Amino acid sequence: MDVFDAIKTRRSIRKYLSVPVEWEKVGRIMEAGKAAPSAGNVQDWRFVVVTDKKQREMIAHACMDQHWMVQAPIHIVVVGEPEKSKRFYGRKGETLYTIQDCAAAIQNMLLAAHALGLGSCWVGSFDDDALMRAVSILPEIRFQAVITIGYADEVVPEPPEYTLENMMYFRNYGGQPNRIKNIPMQQNETGQMIREKIEKGKEVFRRMSEKLKKNNG
Fold this sequence. Notes:
Largest sheet: 4 strands, antiparallel
Number of domains: 2
Strand order of the largest sheet: 1-2-4-3
Oligomer: single chain
CATH class of the largest domain: Alpha Beta
Mean pLDDT: 90
Low-confidence stretches: none
Structural class: alpha+beta
Helix content: 40-55%
Order of helices and strands: HHEHEHEHEH
Strand content: 5-15%
Radius of gyration: 24 Å
CATH topology of the largest domain: NADH Oxidase
Distance between the termini: 56 Å
């Protein structure tokens, strides 16, 4: 599946078939998570794979009683190691970079699951103490999310989105004068400017080459 197709067609799935997920696919999903970028390449994430139904029930309860989660045969609990990032980047590493790193890994796993024909959902609402009872971790580790994985039992329609014109600004944030009103036109104009500069650069290089040839006799 093309990466842009995966991005556009991925959906949050909350209904799953009672079909086990192949371990090969679970491994590939986690490989995708491991391949995400991280600040300084510290890779301050860890993945806890849960298949046991009773444990999945505990996780669903910890996630504010979202009982639909139990249907998913695979739960991946993503945790961060803020102390690891803190050693390199101080407080910002602890409070920001670890969260960003784990989020990048989570998104990679969601896209990988979709590309493999699986459904998934990013669950970020949970009670830390209850989740700790379901998945034992060290006190210095921080829960970041739970990903449910399984074969989808629903087709989720494309959700409404803001247009790029409502989300993009030119040079500075905010204000109508800075908003790009026509993205395709802007892309065409920018592309034309770049092409013209490239052609000018080629012409300058050609003249310099000819001049050097003449000087060298």
